[in-house]
């Protein structure tokens, strides 16, 4: 067992972590091994909790749309910036929620799947697509730290320069 001293100079054991288990930091789950499974399971659990809440209660149609846009989706969207799920896994995490949500929104459950995430102007429902939202959140996170004076900026700059070397393009400095 490894020990470290605390602020009172008392030895305290250092907790050993399983590298495949997820660690929660500010509502974002990461595994030390880099696996996405704990984050996917947490997203699935959050979506399932909303699905259970929708099944057990009644919500009028206008309030269901408002709840989706202002409460349900933001709670699912927040941790999407860090993991990198495949499109299939991202959709599987929210598919049961959307199946339960469609009748609450006043939409037939047989509505074509291809139009679930299409914009309303193209006769779609405009439901958030978790894979696309994940990409948008990752780009926003990148842009947020790209032009700051935080230590993360130098790490991002180094990663970007390494990527440019790897793919063989010149930087535009």
Question: How would you describe the overall organization of this protein?
Answer:
This protein has 173 residues and is mostly helical. It has one domain (35-167). 51% of the residues lie in helices and 8% in strands. It has helices at 37-56, 61-77, 87-104, 130-146, 151-167; strands spanning 3-5, 11-13, 22-25, 28-31. Helix 1 (37-56) runs parallel beside helix 3 (87-104). It is globular. It starts with a strand and ends in a 6-residue tail after the last helix.
Q: TL;DR?
A:
With 173 residues, the chain is mostly helical. It has five helices and four strands; from the N terminus they run ββββααααα. The strands form two sheets. A two-stranded antiparallel sheet has the order 1-2. A two-stranded antiparallel sheet has the order 3-4.
Number of domains: 1
Q: In total, how many beta strands? A: 4
Instruction: Figure out the total of helices.
Output: 5
Relative strand content: 5-15%
Q: What is the 3D shape?
A: globular
What structural category arises from helix and sheet content?
Answer: mainly alpha
Task: Give the uncertain stretches in residue-range form.
Answer: none
Mean pLDDT: 84
């Amino acid at each position: 067992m490894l020990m470290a001293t605390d602020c009172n100079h008392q030895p305290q054991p250092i907790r050993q972590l399983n590298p495949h288990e997820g660690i929660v930091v500010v509502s974002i789950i990461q595994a030390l091994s880099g696996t996405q499974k704990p984050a996917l399971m947490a997203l699935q659990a959050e979506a399932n909790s909303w699905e259970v809440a929708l099944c057990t209660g009644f919500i009028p149609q206008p309030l269901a749309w408002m709840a989706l846009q202002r409460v349900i989706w933001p709670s699912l969207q927040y941790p999407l910036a860090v993991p990198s799920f495949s499109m299939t896994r991202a959709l599987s995490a929210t598919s049961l929620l959307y199946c339960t949500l469609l009748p609450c929104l006043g939409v037939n459950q047989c509505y074509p799947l291809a139009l679930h995430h299409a914009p309303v102007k193209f006769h779609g429902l405009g439901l958030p697509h978790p894979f696309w939202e994940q990409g948008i959140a990752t780009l926003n996170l990148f842009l947020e730290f790209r032009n700051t004076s935080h230590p993360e900026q130098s790490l991002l700059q180094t990663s970007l320069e390494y990527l440019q070397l790897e793919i063989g393009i010149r930087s535009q400095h």
